[in-house]
């Protein structure tokens, strides 16, 4: 693993801005109001030849451990234990505050090396704060501006003594692993968990990990950033280990209800996570059943071409469980007519019920999503489908379907060649798509069917 560097500081000193600067992308949400970041976010940082994992954390607040800010601080304390270096960030323009001094006292009890950063030091307005920072006892602070990219060379020099040897060890491990030619790991499953606020998405991921990795609580909308966590799932039947990247997302409410700027950013981040994923689990709340917003989220996932699983969470407290399940199944088949038979599972993040079944279903549906059918086998099925149900002849004009080929996977895409395809009814197109899904093993994954007619060489050229 790459050496790990954690960013610590009170709220609104620019930790997420520094994180984005080091990873070279705007991965973490940034806003002027404090407390935007709530969960730990990991990224691959590159700084003048130094490669390391950078960890953004929630702003450190002096609150009761049971409160939301208190639980956020516990997440930060937990992440410090696995770090190789901690970047303690202060606001140079604001100077040293009592909370900065409290954080410094805590960090002095840790064995992790501390690099003190005086952020927002552009111009001369930050000079008094830089001088004050010496009183924290971590030596000379590194003056920088994460927003403008100033001081990155000084940060490199401060990190180099702590990371140089660890990076060399990492490069040696990578080189050794590349020499193991027989080693062929299975591809990591990119699995996003989406749903309305308070459906239990973060709790579900914590249950899979068997640790309080993500911040949870009764308050709706705790998760803001989309958080990716790499994990290894052990198949309870075969004991085989499978790599999984779990992606937690912000709750997605009706568009008309989203007025807060941060929530808009969070929902946009969740949509980006869907696009990044291979399989998406839409989590429903058993105490609320299936709502119109759930169908809109499911349609969004299918429009993006992602494999979809729907899981009803909080099954341990569901009333009339059998009636609920059958009602949701019927509503899905009616509301998602473009993909009938989407896997529907019952789970409980609290008790662990159905979680292994959900992960196995995710691997299975990814196999179908990635499947490629040889052209010969595909056209044998195609000939049988035409013989069983020939295309119509609207107005007495025959529609001739010549052959079909699979153009892509992930999601599966097919191209149908023929003449007068502009006259082919949508019902017949659905007949072909449903046949592909049912007869060729594509299950309930989104399928793209493109119609292509040959160009007329005698058409008048403009």
UniProtKB/TrEMBL annotation:
<comment type="function">
    <text>GTPase that plays an essential role in the late steps of ribosome biogenesis.</text>
</comment>
<keyword id="KW-0342">GTP-binding</keyword>
<comment type="similarity">
    <text>Belongs to the TRAFAC class TrmE-Era-EngA-EngB-Septin-like GTPase superfamily. EngA (Der) GTPase family.</text>
</comment>
<dbReference type="GO" id="GO:0016787">
    <property type="term" value="F:hydrolase activity"/>
</dbReference>
<feature type="binding site">
    <location>
        <begin position="313"/>
        <end position="316"/>
    </location>
    <ligand>
        <name>GTP 2</name>
    </ligand>
</feature>
<dbReference type="InterPro" id="IPR006073">
    <property type="entry name" value="GTP-bd"/>
</dbReference>
<feature type="binding site">
    <location>
        <begin position="119"/>
        <end position="122"/>
    </location>
    <ligand>
        <name>GTP 1</name>
    </ligand>
</feature>
<keyword id="KW-0378">Hydrolase</keyword>
<keyword id="KW-0547">Nucleotide-binding</keyword>
<dbReference type="Pfam" id="PF14714">
    <property type="entry name" value="KH_dom-like"/>
</dbReference>
<feature type="binding site">
    <location>
        <begin position="195"/>
        <end position="202"/>
    </location>
    <ligand>
        <name>GTP 2</name>
    </ligand>
</feature>
<feature type="domain" description="EngA-type G">
    <location>
        <begin position="3"/>
        <end position="167"/>
    </location>
</feature>
<feature type="binding site">
    <location>
        <begin position="9"/>
        <end position="16"/>
    </location>
    <ligand>
        <name>GTP 1</name>
    </ligand>
</feature>
<dbReference type="InterPro" id="IPR005225">
    <property type="entry name" value="Small_GTP-bd"/>
</dbReference>
<keyword id="KW-0690">Ribosome biogenesis</keyword>
<keyword id="KW-0677">Repeat</keyword>
<dbReference type="InterPro" id="IPR027417">
    <property type="entry name" value="P-loop_NTPase"/>
</dbReference>
<feature type="domain" description="EngA-type G">
    <location>
        <begin position="189"/>
        <end position="370"/>
    </location>
</feature>
<dbReference type="InterPro" id="IPR032859">
    <property type="entry name" value="KH_dom-like"/>
</dbReference>
<feature type="binding site">
    <location>
        <begin position="248"/>
        <end position="252"/>
    </location>
    <ligand>
        <name>GTP 2</name>
    </ligand>
</feature>
<feature type="binding site">
    <location>
        <begin position="56"/>
        <end position="60"/>
    </location>
    <ligand>
        <name>GTP 1</name>
    </ligand>
</feature>
<dbReference type="InterPro" id="IPR016484">
    <property type="entry name" value="GTPase_Der"/>
</dbReference>
<dbReference type="InterPro" id="IPR031166">
    <property type="entry name" value="G_ENGA"/>
</dbReference>
<dbReference type="InterPro" id="IPR015946">
    <property type="entry name" value="KH_dom-like_a/b"/>
</dbReference>
<comment type="subunit">
    <text>Associates with the 50S ribosomal subunit.</text>
</comment>
<protein>
    <recommendedName>
        <fullName>GTPase Der</fullName>
    </recommendedName>
</protein>
<dbReference type="Pfam" id="PF01926">
    <property type="entry name" value="MMR_HSR1"/>
</dbReference>
